[in-house]
Inverse folding.
């Protein structure tokens, strides 16, 4: 069957996709290809794709490419309906919509979120999946116990078209063993602290597999922040949290003996936060990197109830979460306070410069990292502090 | 002289070598419209990779670089073939999409052995290159 695909008997698009997977298998010395149960595809924002990526996607759709497994899509550069309100230039919007149409023609669900696991694309524990989007990779490997490498947009797309992926890296049991031990002595009070912890760990450990101790009550949203930040400053694709994540209890003292050990104290988190914080004068406050869960939107609505914002507060989430938040009245509360909620995009992949943004305040080290590399001034602040400072 | 390596993407190409001791980022580092290396301070800054047997250690930078290689091929500004010391996913992906022969892990270090201007035949399918030293 794989040979047939490669020879072009299942069409030119399948053959191209197969060629790519075989070449990547060669690069990473994979023994063979294995079937996957699902895919999540990045490389969606026109800001990153540019003409080159748009052309490639349209060419591939034209060749008749179709997904063989369920495939969801990462955020685009704008809310697909409310882009005018975001200040997105018309030319950008037109090309962004063509990108989405090309993906849809191939059968990819236009979910446009970095948190597919919050809207029903939840891989089974132990299943092989091909996910791009570094934060979702770290979350699905670590918290859901699924198996994926850090796929690129093209490799995840090729896997969705063939239903195959080369077998190497985190797909193999042995490579999921811890490579370092992290003792957390710092006090973690909210999402920003987990984000800072992830940012610190990634910076020090690069692309190792950390075994983290000392955070026995981390909830899903905290782990989402940790995953995103550690995948940003380093290349972390998998971590284990003692007493929390599903594979952690497979490893005992014997497995951890001799590994590099680091201790994380309050000062390390403060250092991570201050490395991404500058003085800002008229920032946009941003929430939703990764995309907000329903609980996070509820928290924002609770803090904003009865307040009036002086500056801009923009919240980013998926359509799935937005619908439920709207039904429960959270969106209404946020809008009443003067905040905005957008879907399909975020502060990392929207063309912030073209939108005239110069400064942001956020509770996400990942967002601050990328905004700062785009030349914006950034400051990190927990949600509560942000709201109190910006409202009366 | 002939050298054997690892075939990543097959196909045949020939042309003059352009050798860089530094890694190359196609996204932001090369102008796809002209094929000219634009990364400031890069050893190849100002040089055109168009039609060359581009030889460098490995790719770097954003994965969007793969799409840039694809676009360059369509515009006619792409290298004829790529030789890496040890390739990685960005370059490999770009070369598959663009159908550009790609070989790595040659028996002798290509960035030391090959000289800019050498005439090179690349037999991608066999993971083989043939070097004719600096001829006119």
């Amino acid at each position: 069957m794989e040979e047939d695909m490669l020879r072009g008997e299942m069409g030119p698009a399948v053959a191209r996709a197969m060629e790519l997977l075989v070449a990547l298998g060669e690069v990473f010395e994979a023994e063979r290809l294995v079937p996957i149960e699902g895919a999540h595809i990045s490389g969606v924002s026109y800001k990153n794709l540019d003409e080159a990526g748009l052309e490639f996607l349209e060419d591939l759709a034209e060749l008749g490419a179709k997904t063989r497994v369920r495939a969801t899509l990462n955020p685009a550069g704008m809310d697909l309906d409310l882009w005018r309100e975001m200040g997105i230039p018309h030319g950008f919007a037109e090309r962004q919509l063509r990108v989405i149409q090309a993906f849809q023609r191939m059968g990819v669900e236009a979910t446009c979120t970095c948190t597919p696991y919050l809207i029903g694309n939840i891989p089974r524990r132990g299943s092989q999946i091909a996910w791009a989007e570094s934060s979702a990779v770290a979350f699905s490997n670590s918290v859901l116990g699924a198996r994926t490498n850090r796929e690129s947009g093209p490799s995840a797309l090729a896997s969705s078209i063939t239903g195959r992926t080369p077998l190497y890296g985190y797909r193999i049991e042995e490579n999921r063993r811890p490579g370092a031990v992290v003792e957390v002595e710092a006090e973690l009070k909210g999402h920003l602290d987990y984000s800072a912890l992830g940012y610190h760990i990634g910076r020090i450990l690069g692309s190792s597999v950390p075994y983290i101790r000392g955070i026995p009550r981390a909830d899903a949203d905290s782990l989402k922040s940790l995953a995103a930040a550690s995948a940003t400053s380093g290349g972390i694709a998998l971590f284990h949290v003692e007493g929390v994540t599903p594979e952690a209890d497979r490893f005992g003292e014997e497995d951890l003996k001799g590994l590099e050990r680091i201790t994380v104290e309050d000062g390390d988190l403060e250092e991570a936060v201050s490395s991404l914080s500058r003085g800002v004068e008229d920032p946009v406050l941003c929430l939703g990197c990764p995309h907000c869960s329903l609980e996070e939107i509820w928290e924002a609505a609770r803090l904003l109830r009865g307040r009036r914002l002086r500056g801009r507060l923009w919240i980013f989430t998926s359509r799935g979460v937005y619908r439920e938040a709207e039904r429960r009245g959270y969106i209404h509360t946020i809008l009443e306070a003067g905040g905005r909620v957008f879907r399909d995009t975020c502060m990392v992949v929207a063309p912030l410069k073209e939108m005239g943004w110069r400064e942001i305040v956020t509770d996400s080290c990942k967002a601050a990292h990328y905004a700062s590399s785009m030349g914006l001034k950034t400051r990190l602040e927990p949600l509560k502090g942000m709201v109190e400072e910006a409202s009366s | 002289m002939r050298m054997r390596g690892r075939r990543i993407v097959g196909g045949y190409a020939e042309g003059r070598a352009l050798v860089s001791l530094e890694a190359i980022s196609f996204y932001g580092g090369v102008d796809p419209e002209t094929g000219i290396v634009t990364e400031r301070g890069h050893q190849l800054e100002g040089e055109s990779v168009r039609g060359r047997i581009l030889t460098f250690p490995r790719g770097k930078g954003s994965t969007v670089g793969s799409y840039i290689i694809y676009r360059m091929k369509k515009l006619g500004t792409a290298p004829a073939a790529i030789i890496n010391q040890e390739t990685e996913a960005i370059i490999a992906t770009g070369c598959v999409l663009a159908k550009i022969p790609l070989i790595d892990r040659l028996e002798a270090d290509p960035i030391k052995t090959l000289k800019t201007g050498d005439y090179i035949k690349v037999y991608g399918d066999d993971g083989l290159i043939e070097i004719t030293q600096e001829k006119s």
Summary: The mean pLDDT of chain A is 96. Chain A touches chain B through 21 residues (CB under 8 Å). The two ends of chain A are 64 Å apart (CA to CA). The first helix of chain A runs from residue 2 to 7.
